[in-house]
């Protein structure tokens, strides 16, 4: 099924302008780089990129603001984030429109992304009255041993196009309550939603009397990001993107002994055991694999199915894929919007050609849609490919809706296949066998940062820590105790006795 009528670029421009104006953001009229919509592939506005002087000014201003912000009591810092959360609620529809226009997400997923921002604000407000340190038993009489968490400094947030607003909010809401200030370098593909978020945070800061420079937005290309990566005034670089990007960022930040929080590629798999509830599995799989047009870090890319049910499940998925409505993400019936760019479609077609040359068989999808209606956009049918082996292309992350279907005979074999990829973000098992489920979640099971049972790999709640192992980069963001990455711990030994007792029974003098 295809929704054929797409909005025109003029319609999208008007809609984006209206949203930006309602939010109070300035509608851009620069010439340095374009804001495009993947819905038509055409340009909406011209943007002005940050200059070297502008970047320097942001570094100086956020550092200066940090000096005040770090001594503002954390619950007061929480008031800023609470106000931001209220403004996000007030402008939920406008923000979702901008996400749909720039990232091509369907309405429900765009609204879900804004909800994720609201949720992390709520979480961070609660956190602002916690930020717990510990008291540790001291070995010496009359001594107290404690751990205190202090603000870290300026946090550089580098974010990707696919969660253009939520990933910023995970970092920013938490960093702000932790007493840090933030410089944001968003993807060049999603400048409009960044302008909107920056404006709402500036409004919140004005209203609660927080320093304006707790946050600065820098639009531009990779040179802006490189400046942040190399500048010792940036205490933490939190970067989301490809493993290739992380390989450059990690060593550069380490070379100056800065801190890094990396959220890089995933190659997420689900094991489907013979006892699985197939109705539930089909729903979970199709959302995780085809949702967001396969452009989440957590997208399901590999299915490892028990041989006894592989044909049945493949047939059910083939039928479900044939019915997926692809097209205008503003149309309420659409489930699959456009890919971000024609280059993404090229990458998808290249991976498909390679896997077919390696013996893969396409079961469903793989075609291009709406090429006549929108020649500069890239609408792709999510594709299901049956493969006998986990070849090199299956072990890579292709940022498009390709689901490779592999088979297994024993759970040990399934877990070995599951873990035999360089990435380690998200994973799941569909089973009604508790032993199997527990084994998959155990130390000898999935090696990922996220491991689920009877639910797909994508769509995590904000309350848990988000991130993964191996080439995914090892960082954790969002909930649980991910806040600790944004603070520095100090260990305090306090002697409230009148004698100087040395640790480890050392005598001196
Ligand atoms: C990402 O794709 O970078 O778990 C983030 C999920 C979302 C976040 C994805 N909550 O799919």
Automatic annotation (TrEMBL):
Active-site positions on this chain: 263
Enzyme class: oxidoreductase
Key words, A-Z: NAD, Oxidoreductase
EC number of the protein: 1.2.1.3
Keyword NAD carried by entry: yes
Superkingdom field: Bacteria
PROSITE patterns associated with the record: ALDEHYDE_DEHYDR_GLU
Pfam family, one: Aldedh
Aldehyde dehydrogenase domain residues: 31-489
MF terms in GO: aldehyde dehydrogenase (NAD+) activity
Subunit architecture: Homotetramer.
Family assignment from sequence similarity: Belongs to the aldehyde dehydrogenase family.
Protein name: aldehyde dehydrogenase (NAD(+))
Organism of provenance: Streptomyces natalensis ATCC 27448
Upper classification of the organism: Bacteria, Bacillati, Actinomycetota, Actinomycetes, Kitasatosporales
